[in-house]
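Homework help board

Subject: predicted structure for assignment chain

Our instructor gave us this sequence and asked us to write out the predicted structure in token form, then describe one feature. I got the tokens but I'm not sure how to describe them. Can anyone check?
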Amino acid sequence: MVKAFYDGACYVCDGEVNLYKKHNSRIEWINIAEPGFDAEKYQLTAQEVDASLHTIDEHGTVYKGVDSFILIWNHLPKPYPYFSKIIKLPIIYGLAKIAYACFAKLRVYLPKKNVCEINPKQDKDPS
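My token output:
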């Protein structure tokens, strides 16, 4: 099963992942904003997974950024696999890598969800 690491505290990231979750159960979605998340368990660092989207395929190969989207889209139903074919075209792939790198750098400045929004199943204090 593919493992995908995403920032559930990021409204944009979480929104996109929620779209993907509606379509597929062959991807294990791992929220790096969850308390107790341990990147080292996957031979990654917290800084790596916080800097960009990471995925690990069924064979243990690690992908990041645009290559992670390609892997994810190939594990989702149509029309997503078509997106991966288009984005792999040489000029589009280069532009997508630049665009994603810009987004990844700007993402840290986007508003974040608070802890209760990230993990709504947490027991709330009745007082």
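Reply (TA_rk): Your tokens look well-formed. For the description, you could write something like this. The helical segments are 11-21, 46-51, 66-74, 80-87, 90-107, 115-118. That's the kind of observation they're looking for.
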